[in-house]
Specification:
The chain is of the alpha/beta class. Helices cover 39% and strands 19% of the residues. It is built from 6 helices and 6 strands; from the N terminus they run βαβαβαβαβαβα. The protein has a 6-stranded parallel beta sheet, sandwiched between helices. The longest helix has 12 residues, at 114-125. The N and C termini lie far apart (43 Å).
Length: 153
Amino acid sequence: MRQSSGVYKLAFIGGGINSIAGYPHLLASQLDNKFKVVAGAFSTQQEINKQTGKAWEIDNIYDSWQDMVQKEKNNIDAVVILTPTPLHYEMITKLLDLNIPVICEKPLVLNPWNLDGLEEIENESGKKIYNILQLRHHPSIIALKNKFDQLPD
């Protein structure tokens, strides 16, 4: 990823205030002061989109992720994808085609055969896809893991 001013500038696709993924990702992005969310297409619902931008003090809010990417592509260092998994492949391929690095919540794609195509595009573009599981710190996920850990072998 390029770093424009000592801080990586991020744009979010999805993750509005009504989602489980958005706020934890926003918080995580601010933990070390190396990332700043500067733009978002947080929801397909205009009101949620506006409420998210206002609550998180983000001025550059877009009704569609395509518009956001076109207008912000020279102002951002990466895009964070926080949408339902079936939408990931299209978004990732478009972003890599525009040479924009991608941070994507797990699972990366629905179909394993899509991984070969993503790897090819990643290699051609020279940009990276960073796959994360932010919710591993969510209390319900931790509780579930603890239950599994207590099962007999």
